[in-house]
Amino acid sequence: MSLTRLNLTSGRAAVIADIRLTSTYGDMLEGYPFSRLNDMKLSALLHQATRAFPDHPVHVVPPRRDLPDLPAGAFGPVETLPPVAVIALLTSEPVDPAHSDVSFYSALTVVWLQDEPAIPSGDTAAPSLLALPWTDLAQDYER
Hints:
This protein is of the alpha+beta class. It has one domain (4-142). The chain is 18% helix and 29% strand. It contains 3 helices and 6 strands, in the order ββαβββααβ. It has helices at residues 35-52, 127-130, 134-137; strands spanning 4-7, 13-23, 58-60, 84-92, 104-114, 139-142.
């Protein structure tokens, strides 16, 4: 049973089978977010997603990077990412039209960042998430 359904802009429906939400900067005790730190955080999220769902391809939706009007520190300008990091396993109908819907499904692990700790559904998800090029990224699996 799925948690929720996403209506991708391609017309395909994908369901969230598993989702994990964490704080983007929850482990940051000192300092400030900057570009290189954010790159390391995104790399760590990719690694976590690969470990969580090792049999599925992983895609990272490029996050919004904000440059607040704050003074630069020793590591350069302040750069912030959205506060909630999400790793989710999405499933859908098979990508290959030769595969039966009864015997096959397609799956993709997706990493994205968002502003609120909420599970997206329907058409309310971020446009960058709904615009996933599913047929290019997902793989088919036999049930």
